[in-house]
């Protein structure tokens, strides 16, 4: 199975954990032996962090592969994949490392396994610098399922920075192949809803204040829609540690979903957290795209694997998205084009169409 090693420079473009996630997932799927060098070269703490390590070990276990150089602080790994297998797999970041990022790396792989999978992911569910689990469940899930698969995401325990301690169980069955998607018609916003949460010792008033501030901020710009943000006290037996945050979702007439979210930090007042999430949502609604800036890069690997031509309309193309495209082209040989949207309603906006001719990956086991 093993051909020559594919060389990946982990220091270019986004230069972080994302290169590792995209390249190891594609290596696993395509049976390509891989060497990644200069891992997180430009970061303040270069090399592998616990979260990246647990992702790599999970991919290794998913396909009985060989992994060398995988230790904290290492800037070079080699990976030799074997056959992807289903069943139960556990990954534990042992920190507040994001379970959502663990899901990003493993999900494309287990779609092409021989039998159904159960992924037990442990770490942070609502952590900085990563999607919150609510985003994964409420935005990523319904959109990514348009590729023609379904998954179940069971939040057993929420975990926050710095302790982590969260657990999410993802169950999914393999597919023969992925359908292409077309997300280019945004429609108009029909609903805005969300949740503002507190966990642990934080008073419920914080949740109410975040929600109220977010609603006030959205009202200034969107006056004709009811904005329903529920304040939530996470039950003691379903949350580990202390945390607060908010996610707000806008849904459109064509089923597009956009989000804004924010997490509380020590010393940041609740209003500010609510306003930050609201402003992020409003910014994502202004650019005229059909996906928000966080969904962009998460869809690239699925577009690359699908059978046929996928198109998504986006706002400004993020560095994460450019990075995912670069490695999908290098490793999977998918073909992407990114061009300014030519629709007249987008003329004044920074709107793009990302198009991909997928490689039509088929599951050899089915």
TrEMBL record:
PANTHER family from the UniProt entry: RNA 3' TERMINAL PHOSPHATE CYCLASE, RNA 3'-TERMINAL PHOSPHATE CYCLASE
GO molecular function list: ATP binding; RNA-3'-phosphate cyclase activity
Matching Gene3D superfamilies: RNA 3'-terminal phosphate cyclase domain, RNA 3'-terminal phosphate cyclase, insert domain
Keyword ATP-binding tagged: yes
Catalytic activity field: a 3'-end 3'-phospho-ribonucleotide-RNA + ATP = a 3'-end 2',3'-cyclophospho-ribonucleotide-RNA + AMP + diphosphate
Annotated ATP binding sites: 104, 294-298
GO CC list: nucleus
Keywords: ATP-binding, Ligase, Nucleotide-binding
Residue ranges of domain RNA 3'-terminal phosphate cyclase in the record: 13-338
Major enzyme class: ligase
Record protein name field: RNA 3'-terminal phosphate cyclase
Domain of life: Eukaryota
GO biological process: RNA processing
Family (UniProt): Belongs to the RNA 3'-terminal cyclase family. Type 1 subfamily.
Function: Catalyzes the conversion of 3'-phosphate to a 2',3'-cyclic phosphodiester at the end of RNA. The mechanism of action of the enzyme occurs in 3 steps: (A) adenylation of the enzyme by ATP; (B) transfer of adenylate to an RNA-N3'P to produce RNA-N3'PP5'A; (C) and attack of the adjacent 2'-hydroxyl on the 3'-phosphorus in the diester linkage to produce the cyclic end product. Likely functions in some aspects of cellular RNA processing. Function plays an important role in regulating axon regeneration by inhibiting central nervous system (CNS) axon regeneration following optic nerve injury.
Residue ranges of domain RNA 3'-terminal phosphate cyclase insert in the record: 184-285
EC number, UniProt record: 6.5.1.4
Pfam families: RTC, RTC_insert
Active-site annotation: 320
Statement: the UniProt record of this protein carries the keyword Cytoplasm: no
